Amino acid sequence: DSGVTQTPKHLITATGQRVTLRCSPRSGDLSVYWYQQSLDQGLQFLIQYYNGEERAKGNILERFSAQQFPDLHSELNLSSLELGDSALYFCASSPQVAGFNEQFFGPGTRLTVL
Amino acid sequence: GENVEQHPSTLSVQEGDSAVIKCTYSDSASNYFPWYKQELGKRPQLIIDIRSNVGEKKDQRIAVTLNKTAKHFSLHITETQPEDSAVYFCAAYRPGGTSYGKLTFGQGTILTVHP
Q1: Which residue on chain A is closest to B42 by alpha carbon?
Q2: Cα–Cα dist B35/B51, whole Å
Q3: What whole-number percentage of chain B has pLDDT above 90?
């Protein structure tokens, strides 16, 4: 157990819908990262938040957005869902000390868009 | 931005053989190189990492080497066992300051160890 929690574990929804994925980082970690892993694909970095502020952006679609709250949990919002959005979404956290940042991954949320 | 290339995409070995996975990176500012193992349907887990001021690191049957000049690093697994079967990801971390930095992953290698 990495200490990072994600809810829900599974999510099944229809095209055009909107969903919210939730992540709680390890105690004390200030940074949260979101990744998308499609079938047979690697880990695609979406976005990073540090202490409530967006810090780095990867290949995140405009239909997707995220935020990190004062208690440091984070939510990833996916809207106007398409079939191709079906994937495993991972959240990771790190302490973000200067120069070293091991990332600890949560168990993931499996999103299925029908 | 950083680009990490990982090879091979699949690797099949017999139990007891060695396995080697290679990665190259593009950004010379990257200074931290972790390797993650992901079993089917589970989260990626760090198995070993190396920093740019070190050329080699070993942990039991797993070792990682780094060549900063050539910008490539490799994972070596000796005496492979069936439970080593998984997807392995290399990554390169480019620092951007105290509060941000980016970890770029390779495409992954599916390792299968046959009993």
Answers
A1: A107
A2: 12
A3: 78
